[in-house]
Design a protein that fits this description.
The chain starts with a strand and ends with a strand. 38% of the residues lie in helices and 22% in strands. Strand 9 and strand 10 form a beta hairpin. It contains eight helices and ten strands. It binds ligand GEK. Ligand GEK binds next to helix 3 and strand 4.
Length: 268
């Protein structure tokens, strides 16, 4: 079991964790953002308040997060080549960049970590400054819809495509595709939905149980759901795969699922 900041039990990956989980070394602040009743729930924003509790928030809300982060190191080991760029899109506090960075030993590599929330970028820069690794990590405050991808061997978009307007997702994937070198990989992790109503109901119920087991109250869960309703729009796995093919990827494989969260790898 993992133990959270106030010593209450947190359900997260314990069966597989030979690799370092970056968030263990980051902020230990407990997420209580939605603990009190709010008169008006505004759309979710990645502001200073969220940045200050982010490691706790994401681990207690996203089943599988603690497994996916260290596994990104294995993708880095397999796909990264010397003198190439690695992109971490929607980097938040840098967990994915740091996990990949530990596995990059080739010379001349730069991890380009991008987030458009200033509060996240500031904290990410501080986390990166403390890390000691061979690859450079260049943390940029920018919109991932506006950057140019170049000489990429690996692109990771970890729980961020879900925040891009659905009609803009294909354009983003096409941009990534054109910036990837042949044989390069795109790793996507996102919340997912299911076409079959019974499965959708089951996976959602299990996610609810996960959040309750991690100490979130009914009030916190329902207020956060309202805040995210218009900003986090999940796709089915089938939609992800169709879109990756439309963007040009020859291969797209789901490689992880925990309830209604999943990850895919697409190869150019
Ligand atoms: C992790 N990947 O720990 N451009 C840049 N950043 C964006 C955009 C955009 N258009 N939209 C949202 N973001 C991280 C976790 S969190 C997931 C990613 C979550 C950023 C946003 O500011 C936030 O930091 C991140 O995407 C999503 O592995 O909170 O569920």
């Amino acid at each position: 079991m993992c133990v959270s900041a106030d010593s209450s039990t947190t359900i997260c990956a314990t069966y597989f964790n030979p690799l370092q989980v970056e968030h263990d070394k980051m902020s230990k602040n407990k997420d209580r953002i939605y603990a009190r009743p709010q008169d008006m729930i505004v759309d979710f924003r990645f502001d200073e308040q969220v940045a200050s509790v982010f490691p706790d928030m994401i681990r207690r809300s996203v089943p599988g997060y603690d497994t996916i982060i260290p596994l990104l190191g294995l993708f880095a080991e397999r796909f990264v080549h010397a003198n190439t760029n690695i992109y971490d899109l929607g980097c938040s506090l840098g967990a994915a960049s740091l996990a990949m960075g530990r596995y990059i030993t080739q010379p001349g590599c730069t991890i380009i970590a991008v987030d458009n929330a200033e509060a996240m970028v500031q904290q990410c820069r501080a986390n990166v400054a403390q890390a000691d690794m061979a690859a450079d990590i260049d943390v940029r405050c920018a919109d991932i819809r506006e950057i140019v991808f170049d000489n990429a061997s690996l692109v990771v978009i970890n729980f961020t495509l879900q925040f891009i307007e659905p009609e803009q997702r294909l354009t983003l994937l096409k941009n990534i595709y054109q910036g990837l070198n042949p044989g390069g990989a795109l790793v996507i992790a996102d919340k997912i939905v299911f076409a079959a109503p019974a499965q959708q109901h089951f996976e959602e119920a299990m996610h609810l149980d996960f959040k309750k087991a991690n100490g979130y109250s009914e009030l916190e869960i329902s207020q956060k759901r309202t805040a995210l309703e218009k900003v986090l729009i999940p796709d089915t796995l089938e939609t992800h795969i169709d879109r990756l093919q439309q963007a040009g990827f020859a291969h797209a494989y789901p490689w992880f699922q925990c309830f209604n969260f999943g990850a895919l790898c697409a190869i150019k």
